[in-house]
Amino acid sequence: MKQNLTLKKMLFISLLTAQGIILSLLEQAIPFPFAFAPGAKLGVANIITVIGLYTLSLQEVVLVVLLRTLLTALLGGTFSTLLYSSAGAAFSLLGMLLVKQLGPKRVSLIGVSATGGILHNFGQLIIASFIAKSWTVLLYLPAMSIVGIFAGIAIGISANYALNHVKILKAYREKQEM
C-alpha cells in the first residue's frame, strides 16, 4: 500500500512538473503585453508552484520548481533564461513559503501568490544587476513590482479556483492541511 502511495505521489509531482513546463513554453510563445515593463510576463506556470505549495511537502514543491525551471530552460531557453528564471523561482518560492507560514487567517493564498510575483521579479533584477555590473538596474523594480503584484493576484485567483474546484487537487489540499 505504501509503495502505491509513493507511486501516486510521484505521478502527481510529474504531472504538476509537466503542466508547469507546458505553461511556461506556451507563455514564451506569446508576446509580452506590458509595454511599460519590457520583458514582464504573467508567469502562468507559477499557478503550478502555488498549487504545489498547498498540496505537497516542502521537498516535493522544491523538486517541482527545480525540475520545471531546468527543463523549461533546456526545452525553450538559453543559459541566461536559466539564470533569470532560477533566481526568480528561488526568491519567489522562499518568500511564498515564509508568508504562508503566517497562516490562512493572516494571509490568503492570493496574498502568498502576490508575494511570489514581487519576489520573482526582484530575483531576476538581482541577476540582471550582476550581469550589467550596475545596481541601477534595480531602478526598474517599482514598475516590475506593480506588474508582479497584479500577476501574483491573477495567479493566486487561478490557483485558488483550481484548488477548490478540481477534485483531485482539493483532496491533496485537504490531506496537506491535516
TrEMBL record:
<feature type="transmembrane region" description="Helical">
    <location>
        <begin position="79"/>
        <end position="99"/>
    </location>
</feature>
<feature type="transmembrane region" description="Helical">
    <location>
        <begin position="139"/>
        <end position="163"/>
    </location>
</feature>
<dbReference type="InterPro" id="IPR010898">
    <property type="entry name" value="Hpre_diP_synth_I"/>
</dbReference>
<protein>
    <recommendedName>
        <fullName>Heptaprenyl diphosphate synthase component I</fullName>
    </recommendedName>
</protein>
<keyword id="KW-0812">Transmembrane</keyword>
<keyword id="KW-1133">Transmembrane helix</keyword>
<dbReference type="InterPro" id="IPR014535">
    <property type="entry name" value="Hpre_diP_synt_I"/>
</dbReference>
<dbReference type="Pfam" id="PF07456">
    <property type="entry name" value="Hpre_diP_synt_I"/>
</dbReference>
<keyword id="KW-0472">Membrane</keyword>
<feature type="transmembrane region" description="Helical">
    <location>
        <begin position="44"/>
        <end position="67"/>
    </location>
</feature>
